[in-house]
Structure prediction request, 599 residues.
Amino acid sequence: MPHDTPLIATIVAGLGLAFVFGALANRFRVPPLVGYLVAGVLVGPNTPGFVADAGLANELAEIGVILLMFGVGLHFSLKDLLSVRAIAVPGAVVQIGFASLLGVGLAWLLGWSLGAGLVFGLALSVASTVVLLRAMQERRLIETERGRIAVGWLIVEDLAMVLALVLLPVLAGVLGGQPQADNHSSLFFLPASYGIWGVVGVTLAKVAAFVVVMLVVGRRVIPWILHYVAHTGSRELFRLSVLAIALGVAFGAAKLFGVSLALGAFFAGMIMSESELSHRAAEESLPLRDAFSVLFFVSVGMLFDPFSLVGNGLPILATLAIIVIGKSLAAFVIVIAFRYPIATALMISASLAQIGEFSFILAELGVGLKLLPEQGRDLILAGAILSILLNPLMFLIADRMKPWLGKRAGKAAAPEEARPIGPATEPGQVASVAAAPEKEDGPPPRTALSGHSILVGYGRVGSLVGAALKEAALPFLVIEDAQKTLSKLKAGGIETVAGNAANADVFSAANPEGAKRLILAIPNAFEAGQIVLRARAANPAINVIARAHSDAEVEHLKGLGADTVIMGEREIARGIVEVVTAKAGDPAEPASAVKPQLA
Ligand code: AMP
Prediction:
Protein backbone atom coordinates (compact mmCIF):
# COMPACT_ATOMS: atom_id res chain seq x y z
CA MET A 1 0.00 0.00 0.00
CA PRO A 2 1.57 3.29 -1.00
CA HIS A 3 2.02 5.34 2.16
CA ASP A 4 3.12 8.50 0.48
CA THR A 5 -0.02 8.92 -1.61
CA PRO A 6 -2.83 9.11 0.94
CA LEU A 7 -5.28 10.79 -1.44
CA ILE A 8 -4.94 8.09 -4.08
CA ALA A 9 -5.05 5.36 -1.46
CA THR A 10 -8.20 6.82 0.07
CA ILE A 11 -9.99 7.16 -3.26
CA VAL A 12 -8.94 3.72 -4.48
CA ALA A 13 -9.69 1.90 -1.22
CA GLY A 14 -12.93 3.87 -0.73
CA LEU A 15 -14.33 3.36 -4.21
CA GLY A 16 -12.95 -0.16 -4.60
CA LEU A 17 -14.35 -1.53 -1.36
CA ALA A 18 -17.57 0.43 -1.82
CA PHE A 19 -17.97 -1.31 -5.16
CA VAL A 20 -17.30 -4.77 -3.74
CA PHE A 21 -19.62 -4.36 -0.76
CA GLY A 22 -22.21 -2.42 -2.76
CA ALA A 23 -22.36 -5.30 -5.24
CA LEU A 24 -22.58 -7.81 -2.39
CA ALA A 25 -25.39 -5.82 -0.79
CA ASN A 26 -27.19 -5.74 -4.10
CA ARG A 27 -26.77 -9.50 -4.41
CA PHE A 28 -28.50 -9.97 -1.07
CA ARG A 29 -31.21 -7.47 -2.00
CA VAL A 30 -30.04 -4.92 0.55
CA PRO A 31 -29.68 -1.26 -0.57
CA PRO A 32 -26.11 -0.66 -1.83
CA LEU A 33 -25.56 2.18 0.65
CA VAL A 34 -25.37 -0.46 3.37
CA GLY A 35 -22.40 -1.91 1.50
CA TYR A 36 -20.78 1.53 1.19
CA LEU A 37 -21.08 2.08 4.94
CA VAL A 38 -19.57 -1.32 5.67
CA ALA A 39 -16.69 -0.50 3.32
CA GLY A 40 -16.17 2.70 5.31
CA VAL A 41 -16.11 0.88 8.64
CA LEU A 42 -13.50 -1.51 7.21
CA VAL A 43 -11.12 1.21 5.99
CA GLY A 44 -11.78 3.29 9.11
CA PRO A 45 -9.42 3.63 12.05
CA ASN A 46 -11.61 1.52 14.33
CA THR A 47 -11.15 -1.78 12.54
CA PRO A 48 -7.85 -3.57 11.93
CA GLY A 49 -6.13 -3.48 8.56
CA PHE A 50 -5.65 -0.62 6.12
CA VAL A 51 -6.71 2.78 7.42
CA ALA A 52 -7.69 5.44 4.91
CA ASP A 53 -7.28 9.14 5.67
CA ALA A 54 -10.53 10.20 7.36
CA GLY A 55 -9.89 13.91 6.78
CA LEU A 56 -9.39 13.41 3.07
CA ALA A 57 -12.39 11.09 2.82
CA ASN A 58 -14.48 13.80 4.45
CA GLU A 59 -13.36 16.45 2.03
CA LEU A 60 -14.02 14.16 -0.92
CA ALA A 61 -17.49 13.55 0.49
CA GLU A 62 -18.05 17.32 0.56
CA ILE A 63 -17.48 17.36 -3.19
CA GLY A 64 -20.26 14.79 -3.41
CA VAL A 65 -22.54 17.12 -1.42
CA ILE A 66 -21.68 20.02 -3.73
CA LEU A 67 -22.38 18.07 -6.90
CA LEU A 68 -25.61 16.61 -5.54
CA MET A 69 -26.97 19.98 -4.51
CA PHE A 70 -25.81 21.45 -7.79
CA GLY A 71 -27.75 18.75 -9.64
CA VAL A 72 -30.85 19.49 -7.60
CA GLY A 73 -30.49 23.21 -8.25
CA LEU A 74 -30.46 22.46 -11.97
CA HIS A 75 -34.03 21.18 -11.69
CA PHE A 76 -35.19 24.09 -9.58
CA SER A 77 -36.29 27.60 -10.35
CA LEU A 78 -36.61 30.43 -7.87
CA LYS A 79 -40.36 30.13 -8.34
CA ASP A 80 -40.30 26.46 -7.34
CA LEU A 81 -38.36 27.35 -4.23
CA LEU A 82 -40.68 30.18 -3.24
CA SER A 83 -43.76 28.08 -3.94
CA VAL A 84 -42.90 25.71 -1.07
CA ARG A 85 -41.77 28.27 1.48
CA ALA A 86 -45.19 28.33 3.14
CA ILE A 87 -44.68 24.76 4.35
CA ALA A 88 -40.90 24.38 4.29
CA VAL A 89 -40.11 27.26 6.66
CA PRO A 90 -42.54 26.46 9.50
CA GLY A 91 -42.03 22.74 8.91
CA ALA A 92 -38.28 22.84 9.32
CA VAL A 93 -38.40 25.29 12.22
CA VAL A 94 -40.99 23.30 14.18
CA GLN A 95 -39.19 20.04 13.47
CA ILE A 96 -35.84 21.43 14.59
CA GLY A 97 -37.50 22.79 17.75
CA PHE A 98 -39.19 19.50 18.54
CA ALA A 99 -36.13 17.35 17.90
CA SER A 100 -34.01 19.74 19.99
CA LEU A 101 -36.47 19.43 22.86
CA LEU A 102 -36.28 15.65 22.70
CA GLY A 103 -32.50 15.92 22.59
CA VAL A 104 -32.46 18.16 25.66
CA GLY A 105 -34.73 15.65 27.39
CA LEU A 106 -32.42 12.73 26.68
CA ALA A 107 -29.40 14.80 27.69
CA TRP A 108 -31.11 15.58 31.00
CA LEU A 109 -31.73 11.87 31.59
CA LEU A 110 -28.05 11.22 30.90
CA GLY A 111 -27.08 13.91 33.36
CA TRP A 112 -25.61 16.40 30.85
CA SER A 113 -25.83 20.19 30.98
CA LEU A 114 -28.47 22.21 29.15
CA GLY A 115 -25.85 23.39 26.67
CA ALA A 116 -24.91 19.79 25.91
CA GLY A 117 -28.56 18.94 25.41
CA LEU A 118 -29.01 21.84 23.02
CA VAL A 119 -26.04 20.90 20.83
CA PHE A 120 -27.12 17.25 20.96
CA GLY A 121 -30.72 18.08 20.04
CA LEU A 122 -29.70 20.38 17.21
CA ALA A 123 -27.40 17.70 15.83
CA LEU A 124 -30.27 15.21 15.84
CA SER A 125 -32.61 17.64 14.11
CA VAL A 126 -30.83 18.11 10.76
CA ALA A 127 -31.12 15.56 8.00
CA SER A 128 -28.25 14.66 5.70
CA THR A 129 -28.41 16.27 2.26
CA VAL A 130 -26.76 13.32 0.59
CA VAL A 131 -29.01 10.67 2.09
CA LEU A 132 -32.17 12.64 1.37
CA LEU A 133 -31.32 13.58 -2.19
CA ARG A 134 -30.13 10.14 -3.16
CA ALA A 135 -33.22 8.51 -1.71
CA MET A 136 -35.41 10.87 -3.68
CA GLN A 137 -33.45 10.54 -6.88
CA GLU A 138 -33.74 6.77 -6.66
CA ARG A 139 -37.49 7.12 -6.40
CA ARG A 140 -37.66 9.89 -9.02
CA LEU A 141 -39.32 12.25 -6.57
CA ILE A 142 -37.14 15.35 -6.93
CA GLU A 143 -39.33 16.96 -9.55
CA THR A 144 -42.63 16.27 -7.84
CA GLU A 145 -44.35 18.55 -5.37
CA ARG A 146 -43.22 16.33 -2.48
CA GLY A 147 -39.67 16.50 -3.73
CA ARG A 148 -39.78 20.28 -3.87
CA ILE A 149 -41.13 20.46 -0.33
CA ALA A 150 -38.38 18.18 0.94
CA VAL A 151 -35.67 20.18 -0.82
CA GLY A 152 -37.10 23.47 0.48
CA TRP A 153 -37.18 21.96 3.96
CA LEU A 154 -33.57 20.87 3.60
CA ILE A 155 -32.53 24.37 2.59
CA VAL A 156 -34.20 25.91 5.64
CA GLU A 157 -32.41 23.37 7.83
CA ASP A 158 -29.20 24.23 6.10
CA LEU A 159 -29.64 27.92 6.86
CA ALA A 160 -30.56 27.18 10.46
CA MET A 161 -27.35 25.18 10.82
CA VAL A 162 -25.24 27.97 9.36
CA LEU A 163 -26.69 30.17 12.11
CA ALA A 164 -26.17 27.52 14.79
CA LEU A 165 -22.53 27.08 13.78
CA VAL A 166 -21.76 30.78 14.12
CA LEU A 167 -23.79 31.21 17.30
CA LEU A 168 -22.48 28.27 19.30
CA PRO A 169 -18.96 29.65 19.83
CA VAL A 170 -20.48 32.96 20.93
CA LEU A 171 -22.96 31.33 23.28
CA ALA A 172 -20.58 28.68 24.58
CA GLY A 173 -19.73 30.69 27.70
CA VAL A 174 -23.37 31.28 28.63
CA LEU A 175 -24.23 27.63 28.03
CA GLY A 176 -21.53 26.38 30.36
CA GLY A 177 -18.86 25.54 27.82
CA GLN A 178 -15.56 27.15 27.00
CA PRO A 179 -15.87 30.06 24.56
CA GLN A 180 -13.22 29.91 21.88
CA ALA A 181 -12.30 32.73 19.62
CA ASP A 182 -8.98 31.29 18.51
CA ASN A 183 -7.73 29.01 15.73
CA HIS A 184 -11.00 28.75 13.87
CA SER A 185 -10.03 27.60 10.47
CA SER A 186 -13.60 26.64 9.63
CA LEU A 187 -15.63 28.70 7.24
CA PHE A 188 -18.35 29.64 9.60
CA PHE A 189 -16.86 31.45 12.54
CA LEU A 190 -17.18 35.10 13.43
CA PRO A 191 -15.39 36.83 16.30
CA ALA A 192 -17.15 36.40 19.62
CA SER A 193 -16.72 40.11 20.26
CA TYR A 194 -19.60 40.81 17.84
CA GLY A 195 -22.12 39.71 20.48
CA ILE A 196 -25.08 37.48 19.75
CA TRP A 197 -27.13 39.90 17.70
CA GLY A 198 -24.08 41.17 15.91
CA VAL A 199 -23.20 37.64 14.83
CA VAL A 200 -26.76 36.87 13.75
CA GLY A 201 -26.96 40.17 11.88
CA VAL A 202 -23.65 39.76 10.09
CA THR A 203 -24.45 36.16 9.17
CA LEU A 204 -27.86 36.98 7.77
CA ALA A 205 -26.44 39.97 5.91
CA LYS A 206 -23.79 37.75 4.34
CA VAL A 207 -26.35 35.15 3.28
CA ALA A 208 -28.52 37.91 1.80
CA ALA A 209 -25.50 39.41 0.04
CA PHE A 210 -24.72 36.02 -1.48
CA VAL A 211 -28.27 35.60 -2.76
CA VAL A 212 -28.29 39.09 -4.24
CA VAL A 213 -24.91 38.63 -5.91
CA MET A 214 -26.09 35.34 -7.43
CA LEU A 215 -29.41 36.71 -8.64
CA VAL A 216 -28.00 39.93 -10.02
CA VAL A 217 -24.48 39.16 -11.17
CA GLY A 218 -24.52 35.36 -11.42
CA ARG A 219 -27.68 35.34 -13.45
CA ARG A 220 -26.00 37.37 -16.16
CA VAL A 221 -22.46 36.06 -15.99
CA ILE A 222 -23.07 32.31 -15.68
CA PRO A 223 -25.33 31.89 -18.75
CA TRP A 224 -22.95 34.11 -20.69
CA ILE A 225 -20.00 31.89 -19.80
CA LEU A 226 -21.94 28.74 -20.72
CA HIS A 227 -22.97 30.14 -24.09
CA TYR A 228 -19.50 31.33 -24.81
CA VAL A 229 -18.03 27.93 -24.02
CA ALA A 230 -20.71 26.07 -25.93
CA HIS A 231 -19.82 28.12 -29.00
CA THR A 232 -16.20 27.08 -28.82
CA GLY A 233 -17.49 23.60 -29.67
CA SER A 234 -15.16 21.94 -27.19
CA ARG A 235 -16.86 19.31 -25.10
CA GLU A 236 -13.95 19.20 -22.73
CA LEU A 237 -14.13 22.93 -22.09
CA PHE A 238 -17.88 22.74 -21.60
CA ARG A 239 -17.57 20.02 -18.96
CA LEU A 240 -14.81 21.95 -17.33
CA SER A 241 -16.87 25.14 -17.23
CA VAL A 242 -19.80 23.37 -15.59
CA LEU A 243 -17.58 21.82 -12.96
CA ALA A 244 -15.64 25.01 -12.39
CA ILE A 245 -18.82 27.03 -11.90
CA ALA A 246 -20.42 24.49 -9.55
CA LEU A 247 -17.36 24.04 -7.38
CA GLY A 248 -16.26 27.66 -7.66
CA VAL A 249 -19.58 29.15 -6.62
CA ALA A 250 -19.96 26.67 -3.76
CA PHE A 251 -16.49 27.32 -2.44
CA GLY A 252 -16.76 31.07 -2.94
CA ALA A 253 -20.12 31.10 -1.18
CA ALA A 254 -18.57 29.35 1.79
CA LYS A 255 -15.33 31.33 1.93
CA LEU A 256 -16.62 34.80 1.10
CA PHE A 257 -20.16 34.72 2.42
CA GLY A 258 -20.09 32.09 5.16
CA VAL A 259 -22.90 30.20 3.41
CA SER A 260 -22.68 26.40 3.40
CA LEU A 261 -21.10 24.65 0.43
CA ALA A 262 -24.36 22.86 -0.25
CA LEU A 263 -26.36 26.06 -0.43
CA GLY A 264 -23.78 27.70 -2.68
CA ALA A 265 -23.88 24.76 -5.06
CA PHE A 266 -27.67 24.76 -5.05
CA PHE A 267 -27.71 28.39 -6.14
CA ALA A 268 -25.12 27.77 -8.84
CA GLY A 269 -27.37 25.02 -10.21
CA MET A 270 -30.51 27.12 -9.92
CA ILE A 271 -28.94 29.96 -11.89
CA MET A 272 -27.77 27.50 -14.54
CA SER A 273 -31.22 25.97 -14.81
CA GLU A 274 -32.40 29.19 -16.42
CA SER A 275 -30.08 28.59 -19.32
CA GLU A 276 -31.20 26.26 -22.09
CA LEU A 277 -27.92 24.43 -21.90
CA SER A 278 -28.72 23.27 -18.38
CA HIS A 279 -29.74 19.77 -19.33
CA ARG A 280 -26.42 19.16 -20.92
CA ALA A 281 -24.79 20.67 -17.87
CA ALA A 282 -26.67 18.26 -15.63
CA GLU A 283 -25.57 15.24 -17.60
CA GLU A 284 -21.98 16.43 -17.60
CA SER A 285 -21.80 16.31 -13.81
CA LEU A 286 -23.60 12.99 -13.26
CA PRO A 287 -20.79 10.42 -13.20
CA LEU A 288 -18.63 12.52 -10.89
CA ARG A 289 -21.57 13.17 -8.62
CA ASP A 290 -22.31 9.48 -8.18
CA ALA A 291 -18.70 8.60 -7.44
CA PHE A 292 -18.26 11.31 -4.84
CA SER A 293 -21.55 10.72 -3.11
CA VAL A 294 -20.55 7.08 -2.67
CA LEU A 295 -17.47 8.39 -0.88
CA PHE A 296 -19.80 10.24 1.47
CA PHE A 297 -21.14 6.94 2.82
CA VAL A 298 -17.63 5.53 3.04
CA SER A 299 -16.52 8.54 5.08
CA VAL A 300 -19.50 8.17 7.44
CA GLY A 301 -18.62 4.52 7.89
CA MET A 302 -15.04 5.49 8.71
CA LEU A 303 -16.15 7.65 11.61
CA PHE A 304 -18.05 4.82 13.16
CA ASP A 305 -16.53 2.85 16.01
CA PRO A 306 -18.36 -0.47 16.37
CA PHE A 307 -17.00 -0.78 19.92
CA SER A 308 -18.78 2.39 20.99
CA LEU A 309 -21.99 0.35 20.82
CA VAL A 310 -20.83 -1.76 23.75
CA GLY A 311 -22.28 -0.52 27.03
CA ASN A 312 -24.12 2.31 25.28
CA GLY A 313 -27.13 0.26 24.19
CA LEU A 314 -29.97 2.18 25.78
CA PRO A 315 -28.74 5.72 25.06
CA ILE A 316 -28.11 4.72 21.43
CA LEU A 317 -31.60 3.27 21.11
CA ALA A 318 -33.06 6.45 22.59
CA THR A 319 -31.00 8.60 20.18
CA LEU A 320 -32.14 6.48 17.27
CA ALA A 321 -35.75 6.74 18.43
CA ILE A 322 -35.53 10.54 18.43
CA ILE A 323 -34.14 10.52 14.89
CA VAL A 324 -36.43 7.99 13.26
CA ILE A 325 -39.60 8.22 15.34
CA GLY A 326 -39.62 11.63 17.04
CA LYS A 327 -38.58 13.63 13.98
CA SER A 328 -40.83 11.64 11.68
CA LEU A 329 -43.87 12.18 13.82
CA ALA A 330 -43.21 15.91 14.03
CA ALA A 331 -42.77 16.18 10.26
CA PHE A 332 -45.84 14.05 9.61
CA VAL A 333 -48.05 16.14 11.88
CA ILE A 334 -46.84 19.42 10.38
CA VAL A 335 -47.34 18.34 6.79
CA ILE A 336 -50.80 16.98 7.57
CA ALA A 337 -51.60 20.21 9.45
CA PHE A 338 -50.96 22.04 6.17
CA ARG A 339 -53.50 19.69 4.62
CA TYR A 340 -51.19 17.95 2.22
CA PRO A 341 -52.03 14.34 1.28
CA ILE A 342 -50.94 11.53 3.58
CA ALA A 343 -48.55 10.18 0.95
CA THR A 344 -46.72 13.51 0.92
CA ALA A 345 -46.50 13.57 4.72
CA LEU A 346 -45.18 10.00 4.83
CA MET A 347 -42.59 10.65 2.16
CA ILE A 348 -41.32 13.83 3.85
CA SER A 349 -41.16 12.07 7.22
CA ALA A 350 -39.23 9.12 5.80
CA SER A 351 -36.79 11.31 3.90
CA LEU A 352 -35.94 13.40 6.98
CA ALA A 353 -35.66 10.49 9.41
CA GLN A 354 -31.86 10.39 9.35
CA ILE A 355 -28.89 12.55 10.26
CA GLY A 356 -25.51 13.04 8.64
CA GLU A 357 -22.83 15.52 7.76
CA PHE A 358 -24.12 18.60 9.58
CA SER A 359 -24.62 16.61 12.74
CA PHE A 360 -20.97 15.56 12.68
CA ILE A 361 -19.81 19.15 12.29
CA LEU A 362 -22.04 20.25 15.17
CA ALA A 363 -20.85 17.37 17.34
CA GLU A 364 -17.19 18.18 16.67
CA LEU A 365 -17.79 21.84 17.42
CA GLY A 366 -19.71 20.99 20.60
CA VAL A 367 -16.90 18.77 21.87
CA GLY A 368 -14.32 21.42 20.91
CA LEU A 369 -16.20 24.07 22.90
CA LYS A 370 -16.42 21.69 25.85
CA LEU A 371 -20.20 21.84 25.59
CA LEU A 372 -20.85 18.28 24.51
CA PRO A 373 -19.34 15.29 26.34
CA GLU A 374 -17.47 12.77 24.17
CA GLN A 375 -20.28 10.33 24.77
CA GLY A 376 -22.59 12.75 22.95
CA ARG A 377 -20.44 12.62 19.86
CA ASP A 378 -20.40 8.82 19.97
CA LEU A 379 -24.17 8.73 20.26
CA ILE A 380 -24.55 11.13 17.33
CA LEU A 381 -22.21 9.04 15.17
CA ALA A 382 -23.97 5.81 16.08
CA GLY A 383 -27.37 7.47 15.54
CA ALA A 384 -26.22 8.70 12.13
CA ILE A 385 -24.96 5.40 10.81
CA LEU A 386 -27.93 3.46 12.17
CA SER A 387 -30.50 5.95 10.86
CA ILE A 388 -28.84 6.00 7.43
CA LEU A 389 -28.90 2.19 7.43
CA LEU A 390 -32.56 2.19 8.39
CA ASN A 391 -33.55 4.90 5.92
CA PRO A 392 -34.50 2.61 3.01
CA LEU A 393 -36.62 0.68 5.49
CA MET A 394 -38.37 3.91 6.50
CA PHE A 395 -39.41 4.45 2.89
CA LEU A 396 -40.67 0.87 2.77
CA ILE A 397 -42.70 1.39 5.94
CA ALA A 398 -44.07 4.65 4.54
CA ASP A 399 -45.14 2.79 1.40
CA ARG A 400 -46.84 0.10 3.46
CA MET A 401 -48.60 2.60 5.70
CA LYS A 402 -49.96 4.64 2.83
CA PRO A 403 -52.98 2.49 1.93
CA TRP A 404 -53.72 1.75 5.56
CA LEU A 405 -53.62 5.36 6.74
CA GLY A 406 -55.34 6.47 3.55
CA LYS A 407 -58.30 4.21 4.23
CA ARG A 408 -58.68 5.46 7.78
CA ALA A 409 -58.34 9.11 6.81
CA GLY A 410 -60.36 8.74 3.62
CA LYS A 411 -63.63 8.59 5.49
CA ALA A 412 -63.14 11.88 7.25
CA ALA A 413 -60.84 13.93 5.02
CA ALA A 414 -61.90 16.50 2.48
CA PRO A 415 -61.17 15.72 -1.16
CA GLU A 416 -57.56 16.45 -2.04
CA GLU A 417 -58.29 18.98 -4.74
CA ALA A 418 -59.91 21.26 -2.19
CA ARG A 419 -56.67 21.50 -0.24
CA PRO A 420 -55.49 25.05 0.32
CA ILE A 421 -51.78 25.46 -0.16
CA GLY A 422 -51.03 27.28 3.05
CA PRO A 423 -51.62 30.66 4.58
CA ALA A 424 -48.50 32.48 3.38
CA THR A 425 -48.78 31.55 -0.28
CA GLU A 426 -49.46 34.26 -2.80
CA PRO A 427 -52.47 34.02 -5.09
CA GLY A 428 -50.41 33.33 -8.20
CA GLN A 429 -48.74 30.38 -6.58
CA VAL A 430 -51.98 28.92 -5.36
CA ALA A 431 -53.14 28.89 -8.94
CA SER A 432 -49.99 27.26 -10.24
CA VAL A 433 -49.94 24.49 -7.67
CA ALA A 434 -53.66 23.97 -7.62
CA ALA A 435 -53.68 23.70 -11.41
CA ALA A 436 -51.65 20.51 -11.22
CA PRO A 437 -52.73 18.70 -8.09
CA GLU A 438 -50.67 15.61 -7.54
CA LYS A 439 -52.80 12.70 -6.53
CA GLU A 440 -50.23 10.69 -4.73
CA ASP A 441 -52.17 8.66 -2.22
CA GLY A 442 -52.04 4.89 -2.68
CA PRO A 443 -51.15 3.00 -5.83
CA PRO A 444 -52.38 4.52 -9.09
CA PRO A 445 -55.86 3.34 -10.14
CA ARG A 446 -55.93 0.43 -12.56
CA THR A 447 -56.96 1.14 -16.12
CA ALA A 448 -60.18 -0.26 -17.57
CA LEU A 449 -58.50 -0.81 -20.95
CA SER A 450 -57.75 -4.25 -22.33
CA GLY A 451 -56.36 -5.39 -25.66
CA HIS A 452 -54.48 -2.08 -25.56
CA SER A 453 -50.92 -0.88 -26.09
CA ILE A 454 -48.88 0.34 -23.14
CA LEU A 455 -46.59 3.15 -24.22
CA VAL A 456 -43.81 3.87 -21.72
CA GLY A 457 -42.27 7.35 -22.04
CA TYR A 458 -43.73 10.25 -23.96
CA GLY A 459 -40.66 12.25 -24.94
CA ARG A 460 -39.11 12.70 -28.37
CA VAL A 461 -39.83 9.09 -29.33
CA GLY A 462 -42.97 8.23 -27.39
CA SER A 463 -44.89 11.32 -28.46
CA LEU A 464 -44.47 10.44 -32.15
CA VAL A 465 -45.51 6.85 -31.51
CA GLY A 466 -48.49 8.04 -29.49
CA ALA A 467 -49.63 10.34 -32.27
CA ALA A 468 -49.47 7.44 -34.74
CA LEU A 469 -51.43 5.14 -32.39
CA LYS A 470 -54.06 7.81 -31.96
CA GLU A 471 -54.36 8.32 -35.69
CA ALA A 472 -54.72 4.59 -36.22
CA ALA A 473 -57.43 4.60 -33.52
CA LEU A 474 -55.59 1.92 -31.55
CA PRO A 475 -56.41 1.94 -27.82
CA PHE A 476 -53.39 2.86 -25.70
CA LEU A 477 -52.26 4.46 -22.48
CA VAL A 478 -49.03 6.18 -21.51
CA ILE A 479 -46.83 5.56 -18.46
CA GLU A 480 -44.80 8.70 -17.80
CA ASP A 481 -43.02 10.10 -14.78
CA ALA A 482 -42.42 13.72 -15.80
CA GLN A 483 -45.07 15.94 -14.28
CA LYS A 484 -45.05 18.47 -17.11
CA THR A 485 -45.56 15.83 -19.79
CA LEU A 486 -48.36 14.24 -17.76
CA SER A 487 -50.26 17.53 -17.58
CA LYS A 488 -49.94 17.91 -21.34
CA LEU A 489 -51.17 14.36 -21.94
CA LYS A 490 -54.15 14.88 -19.67
CA ALA A 491 -55.01 18.10 -21.46
CA GLY A 492 -54.88 16.15 -24.72
CA GLY A 493 -57.32 13.56 -23.36
CA ILE A 494 -54.80 10.69 -23.44
CA GLU A 495 -55.05 8.13 -20.63
CA THR A 496 -52.00 8.11 -18.38
CA VAL A 497 -50.48 6.25 -15.48
CA ALA A 498 -48.17 8.52 -13.52
CA GLY A 499 -44.87 7.24 -12.19
CA ASN A 500 -41.82 5.17 -12.96
CA ALA A 501 -42.82 2.22 -15.14
CA ALA A 502 -40.19 0.08 -13.41
CA ASN A 503 -42.25 0.36 -10.22
CA ALA A 504 -44.49 -2.69 -9.68
CA ASP A 505 -47.61 -0.74 -8.63
CA VAL A 506 -47.30 1.72 -11.47
CA PHE A 507 -46.75 -0.96 -14.07
CA SER A 508 -49.59 -3.18 -12.95
CA ALA A 509 -51.97 -0.18 -13.02
CA ALA A 510 -51.52 -0.28 -16.81
CA ASN A 511 -53.05 -3.79 -16.87
CA PRO A 512 -50.18 -5.63 -18.56
CA GLU A 513 -52.07 -8.93 -18.18
CA GLY A 514 -54.76 -7.73 -20.55
CA ALA A 515 -52.54 -5.67 -22.84
CA LYS A 516 -51.67 -6.60 -26.38
CA ARG A 517 -48.48 -4.65 -26.78
CA LEU A 518 -45.81 -2.93 -24.72
CA ILE A 519 -43.83 -0.12 -26.35
CA LEU A 520 -40.77 1.00 -24.42
CA ALA A 521 -39.90 4.49 -25.64
CA ILE A 522 -37.46 5.37 -22.87
CA PRO A 523 -33.75 5.90 -23.44
CA ASN A 524 -32.38 3.90 -20.50
CA ALA A 525 -31.97 0.28 -21.58
CA PHE A 526 -31.33 -1.01 -18.06
CA GLU A 527 -34.60 0.37 -16.85
CA ALA A 528 -36.33 -0.87 -19.99
CA GLY A 529 -34.90 -4.33 -19.30
CA GLN A 530 -36.45 -4.38 -15.85
CA ILE A 531 -39.82 -3.46 -17.33
CA VAL A 532 -39.52 -6.19 -19.98
CA LEU A 533 -39.00 -8.76 -17.22
CA ARG A 534 -42.05 -7.48 -15.37
CA ALA A 535 -44.16 -7.56 -18.52
CA ARG A 536 -43.12 -11.09 -19.42
CA ALA A 537 -43.94 -12.29 -15.91
CA ALA A 538 -47.39 -10.72 -16.07
CA ASN A 539 -48.25 -11.67 -19.63
CA PRO A 540 -46.09 -14.14 -21.60
CA ALA A 541 -47.99 -13.37 -24.81
CA ILE A 542 -47.53 -9.59 -24.78
CA ASN A 543 -45.70 -8.16 -27.79
CA VAL A 544 -42.75 -6.09 -26.55
CA ILE A 545 -41.16 -3.41 -28.72
CA ALA A 546 -38.22 -1.58 -27.18
CA ARG A 547 -35.84 1.25 -27.92
CA ALA A 548 -32.05 1.00 -27.74
CA HIS A 549 -29.01 3.07 -28.59
CA SER A 550 -26.34 0.46 -29.22
CA ASP A 551 -26.00 -3.11 -30.46
CA ALA A 552 -25.13 -4.22 -26.94
CA GLU A 553 -28.38 -2.74 -25.64
CA VAL A 554 -30.29 -4.53 -28.41
CA GLU A 555 -28.77 -7.83 -27.29
CA HIS A 556 -29.49 -7.07 -23.64
CA LEU A 557 -33.16 -6.30 -24.25
CA LYS A 558 -33.68 -9.23 -26.60
CA GLY A 559 -32.05 -11.50 -24.06
CA LEU A 560 -34.59 -10.36 -21.47
CA GLY A 561 -37.51 -11.12 -23.78
CA ALA A 562 -38.19 -8.10 -26.00
CA ASP A 563 -39.65 -9.20 -29.37
CA THR A 564 -38.42 -6.26 -31.42
CA VAL A 565 -35.73 -3.78 -30.49
CA ILE A 566 -35.28 -0.66 -32.58
CA MET A 567 -31.82 0.86 -32.44
CA GLY A 568 -32.21 4.64 -32.54
CA GLU A 569 -28.94 5.49 -34.20
CA ARG A 570 -29.52 2.98 -37.01
CA GLU A 571 -32.89 4.59 -37.76
CA ILE A 572 -31.30 8.02 -37.85
CA ALA A 573 -28.78 6.71 -40.36
CA ARG A 574 -31.63 5.21 -42.39
CA GLY A 575 -33.39 8.56 -42.43
CA ILE A 576 -30.25 10.32 -43.57
CA VAL A 577 -29.54 7.75 -46.28
CA GLU A 578 -33.09 8.06 -47.51
CA VAL A 579 -32.76 11.81 -47.85
CA VAL A 580 -29.48 11.47 -49.65
CA THR A 581 -30.70 8.80 -52.08
CA ALA A 582 -34.01 10.57 -52.66
CA LYS A 583 -32.08 13.70 -53.60
CA ALA A 584 -29.65 11.75 -55.78
CA GLY A 585 -32.46 9.89 -57.56
CA ASP A 586 -34.79 12.81 -58.07
CA PRO A 587 -33.27 16.27 -58.06
CA ALA A 588 -36.72 17.86 -57.88
CA GLU A 589 -37.54 16.05 -54.62
CA PRO A 590 -37.18 18.44 -51.67
CA ALA A 591 -35.57 16.94 -48.60
CA SER A 592 -38.54 17.88 -46.43
CA ALA A 593 -40.76 15.55 -48.43
CA VAL A 594 -39.14 12.58 -46.72
CA LYS A 595 -41.31 11.69 -43.77
CA PRO A 596 -39.66 10.62 -40.53
CA GLN A 597 -39.80 6.89 -39.95
CA LEU A 598 -41.54 5.59 -36.92
CA ALA A 599 -40.40 1.98 -37.03
P1 AMP B 1 -37.11 10.99 -24.88
O1 AMP B 1 -35.74 10.45 -24.60
O2 AMP B 1 -37.12 12.42 -25.31
O3 AMP B 1 -37.90 10.09 -25.82
O4 AMP B 1 -37.88 11.03 -23.50
C1 AMP B 1 -38.11 9.89 -22.71
C2 AMP B 1 -39.35 10.10 -21.87
O5 AMP B 1 -39.56 8.95 -21.08
C3 AMP B 1 -39.26 11.27 -20.91
O6 AMP B 1 -40.45 12.02 -21.03
C4 AMP B 1 -39.16 10.62 -19.54
O7 AMP B 1 -39.84 11.39 -18.56
C5 AMP B 1 -39.85 9.31 -19.73
N1 AMP B 1 -39.31 8.23 -18.90
C6 AMP B 1 -38.01 7.83 -18.81
N2 AMP B 1 -37.88 6.78 -17.99
C7 AMP B 1 -39.13 6.49 -17.54
C8 AMP B 1 -39.66 5.48 -16.67
N3 AMP B 1 -38.87 4.57 -16.11
N4 AMP B 1 -41.00 5.48 -16.43
C9 AMP B 1 -41.80 6.40 -17.00
N5 AMP B 1 -41.36 7.35 -17.84
C10 AMP B 1 -40.05 7.40 -18.12
About this structure: The longest strand covers residues 543-548.
